[in-house]
Amino acid sequence: MQLTALILSRLQFAFTISFHIIFPSFSIGLAAWLTVLEALHLWTGRPVYRLVFEFWLKIFGIAFGLGVVSGIVMAFQFGSNWSELSRISGPIQGPLLAYEAFTAFALEASFFGVLLFGRRRVTPRFYLFSTAMVALGTSLSAFWIMANNSWMQVPVGYVMENGVAVPTDWAKIILSPVLWVRFPHMFLASLLTGAFCAAATGAWYVLRARFTAEAGIMLSMGLYLAAVLVPVQIFFGHLNGDYIHDYQPAKFAAVEGRWHDEQPAGEVLIAIPDSATATNRFEVKIPVLGSLIGSMSFNSKEVGLTDFPRDLWPPVQIPFFAFRIMVGCGVIMLALAWIGAWFSRGGRLEDNRPLLWLIFLSFPLPFIAILTGWFTAEVGRQPWVVYGVLRTADAVTPFLTAPEATTSLLVFCAVYTFIFAFGIFYIYRLLRAGPAGSLVMPADAAQPNRPMLVASRVGQSAAAAGE
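RESULT FIELD:
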């Protein structure tokens, strides 16, 4: 395979977005949980909620910063590698990204400073309000990004004028039914990420017999939240499948591993799809279930990939396997959340070390589910970058050369690897230090224009715990 500028640009965007999406999804879940913790502290007056809040606030700050840094280049790539996409869809994508800056970033930037420096300078109720505004800002950021991506998945509310997509109805774009099933799905995934990371951290501390009170809060709150949210997430996942079935039938056929029309259609549980022969090897299939999932019917006709020209087929193996990994992660998380919540309610979880180990080891599952879900959505819509309107091959910058794309790809890989390693290491040091000692507060002399005063205290606490 020849590494053209198109392939290299696709690899670069896939790498940067896969790296970037980890941190915003983590931040959204943590911001919501911080709001709950601060509300519980204000309501009950229990210092333990405050201690857990201060502990996770430090981790949130790092994740938030890494998300901002890793996301900056995303906008640059639209101009450097995907100028045709920017030219054709800019009248729609540009305002949507601007709305994110004017709403989400404005809230986050304004009130995050209050979280870092305002504990002693504002009333407790205003501090809670600031925490909620940061959580709202992170959620709005996800909304506008999903609005942008959902328009690319199912374009509505526009007309083509002189080869450019011009918006005609912003209400259709923002109130698209596709957006309003995809955004909750992503938002719930972020909440589950925060819930499982909190539960896994609590399980780790319980296994090490450290921070008993704080660990109990992390463990129980994380499991109870996940036990409620996973079934809701599965429901919205089904709604996402409905929109794919109706609007992107080629993607749906690829995800299902269905090559030929079937009536009624079976559901392929596992197989090795072979695009060359349009068949599945080592296939395990349940009869009729495919029609039930696709059309809520026992006898519906479901289309196969051979109904479409071969040049409109997505790379079948990636969405096929990615979807099954995502579903598998969801099933495991559901089982762990329900079993863990049941044992926690009976006060038996702390003594069940095998279950605690499973909960601790579950922390990568929501991240894996988010990444594989994103792969399913993005790779499955190929060869379109704006579905049915603009092919990916026609969206790349015309004058971009392969050596230029190679250079930027290598630079991004090196920089992102360094950022990721630094961020993970520092978060690990904070997790190892735990919510111990006095409450972390800015020094009396700390000012918003001197944030390193706070950072130095956090670093000293982590370093002391690591010695």
